[in-house]
Amino acid sequence: METSPLTREDWLNQALTELKARGHGALKAQPLAKSLNVTRGSFYHHFDSLSDFHTAVIDHWSRQSSGQIIQAAQAAADPCKALDDLLQTTFRSGQALERAIRAWSTVQPLVAKAVATVDHDRIGVAEALLIRGGVAAIKAKPRAQLLYWAAIGRLMMPYPAESVLSSAEISDIAGLMLETDVGKG
To answer: Can you identify the CATH homologous superfamily of domain 1-47?
Structure first.
């Protein structure tokens, strides 16, 4: 049945594909082995248990979904452009995988904890960009939270791909969040 040895990464990539397509109920050894055309023994060669596998899936999702975007934002020389780029990506995404992870987090405390950590890290990146862009720290955190909550809220709408702002509208929002005198009377 097996054609070539699978790596742990192969299993994790397949898990994200199945999670995106079928939801968290598909994250079981036998159905995944079948979808990879291997025996269930291959699963247990790479993972000690289903719980170990689920933890690895969440870690893999975290690295794939946020890792490169966070690194790019942190390394950017121009925080204003970096914030705009971050929002362009975030507010135009239709991530079915993000929706599936969040649905899973409503029934699995392990996943909820991991999602909360990812959320915290992502908000922290936006907050840091706002501060680097000249916004006072006391104002940066609620602005970063608002941006993030809006992005996640849009993703959780029934048809997120139909709820997309134009590039110019997103840039306008980034500029508004970078205003240093917002709230002064």
So the answer is: Homeodomain-like (1.10.10.60)
